[in-house]
Specification:
- By secondary structure, the chain is an alpha/beta fold.
- It has 3 domains: about 160 residues, 3-Layer(aba) Sandwich (Rossmann fold); about 180 residues, Argininosuccinate synthetase, chain A, domain 2 (Alpha-Beta Complex); about 30 residues, no CATH class.
- It is about 40% helix and about 20% strand.
- Helix 4 packs across helix 5 and helix 8 packs across helix 9.
- The chain is elongated.
């Protein structure tokens, strides 16, 4: 089709992205395909993935470790925003997409490519996240989407790849579609497509069943600096280390499972299983610390901002003007979100049982009912009269 001469392809090592390489060259006349695999802590052996791209016909096969950037520049801002899509999902998969899109655009600039490509299908959210993010970062780049356009079934895709030496994948015993990174796992398809069917224990890998969790609680003290988690139980951790340390501990108490029907961006409802132990617990702890350190009106107004923020991230608008504006608001609110939150992990629940901060707005002399009470109770009468005046006038008028 002659759409582009040199293309940077987002590459995972799976069937679809491997077949994209010969397909782009044979069907669309692309002269050179450069693949880019992102290491986001999914635990894959990346050297075989790099080699598979070359064996499938890539001219250059890039593998980039993006774990640190992923946590620092994408996960931490989402924690500061308490971002939960539909008040539940902590965007563990969604947050990776704008980072990969940025890497594609940067690689295209470095290698002089006139297009980028991905292997997303036409039913998912990721196609939107990639296409919109790429357009925001470089609107002049073409975006090629072979898997959205080739119209092949999985069997036909495998057969097409075999013609070009791409080996038939080992038959998967698992019927599930799984996405994994440092923040968590998302699982869909197979038996899960029936929302009435309970997910079997085999679906889970990062969290233990309640029956297998410890019979004694465990306490974690999470220290935040300007809304960012920096230490656990007094020990400082780097961004990647933090999640590598917390995920097995929190998941080991059966915490971090979500089973939900969510509204996809393309209008389809989808049943998803998520495991995201650390980030769910960190958002809970961070929100609690904000209750101690944010003024009432700021805290209440931020709640609405958080929902909008989560929707923007889910909908692929990470690089949009509104998201950038909300970032400025959120960052300003985080200046004094400093302190430590004590979380009790036990039998599938993470419960905040203590919080302290040098920037706390909690004043014991005002809150106490004891002898040190400094609140002027007589002031309440005048306050209530003025506060209730509009309601009183309204009631008098209604009563005629």
């Amino acid at each position: 089709m002659g759409r582009a001469k040199k293309v940077v392809l987002a590459y995972s090592g799976g069937v679809d992205t491997s077949v994209c390489i010969p397909y782009l060259k044979q069907e669309w006349g692309v002269e050179e395909v450069i693949t880019l695999a992102a290491d986001l802590g999914q635990g894959d052996e990346l050297e075989p993935i790099r080699q598979k791209a070359l064996d499938s016909g890539a001219a250059v096969s890039l593998v980039e470790n993006m774990q640190e950037t992923f946590i620092r520049d994408y996960a931490f801002p989402a924690i500061q925003a308490n971002a939960l899509y539909e008040n539940r999902y902590p965007l563990s998969t969604s947050l990776a997409r704008p980072l990969i899109a940025k890497a594609l655009v940067e690689a295209a600039a470095k290698y002089g490519a006139d297009a980028v490509a991905h292997g997303c299908t036409g039913k998912g959210n990721d196609q939107v996240r990639f296409d919109v993010s790429i357009a925001a970062l470089n609107p002049d780049l073409k975006v090629l989407t072979p898997a959205r356009e080739w119209g092949m079934s999985r069997e036909e895709t495998i057969a097409y790849g075999e013609q070009f030496g791409i080996p038939t994948p080992v038959k998967k015993s698992s019927p599930y579609s799984i996405d994994l990174n440092l923040l968590g796992r998302s699982v869909e398809a197979g038996p899960l497509e029936d929302p009435w069917t309970e997910a079997l224990e085999e679906v889970y890998a990062m969290t233990k069943a309640i029956a297998d969790t410890p019979d004694t609680p465990e306490y974690l003290e999470i220290t935040f600096e300007q809304g960012i988690p920096v230490a656990v139980n007094g020990k400082t951790y780097g961004p990647v280390e933090l999640f590598e340390y917390l995920n097995p501990i929190v998941g080991g108490h059966g915490i971090g499972r979500l089973d939900m029907v969510e509204n996809r961006l393309v209008g389809i409802k989808s049943r998803e299983i998520y495991e995201a132990p650390a980030i769910l617990m960190l958002i809970q702890a961070h929100r609690d610390l904000e209750s101690l350190t944010l003024a009432k009106d700021v805290s209440h107004y931020k709640r609405g901002i958080e929902e909008t923020y989560a929707n923007l991230v889910y909908d692929g608008q990470w690089y949009s003007p509104l998201k950038t504006a909300l970032d400025a608001f959120i960052q300003d609110t985080q200046k004094y979100v400093n302190g430590t939150v004590r979380v009790k992990l036990f039998k599938g629940t993470a419960t905040v049982v203590g919080r302290k901060s040098a920037d706390s707005l909690y004043t014991e002399d005002l809150a106490t009912y004891g002898s040190s009470d400094a609140f002027d109770h007589k002031a309440a009468e005048g306050f209530i009269y003025v506060w209730g005046l509009p309601t009183r006038v309204w009631a008098q008028k209604r009563r005629g």
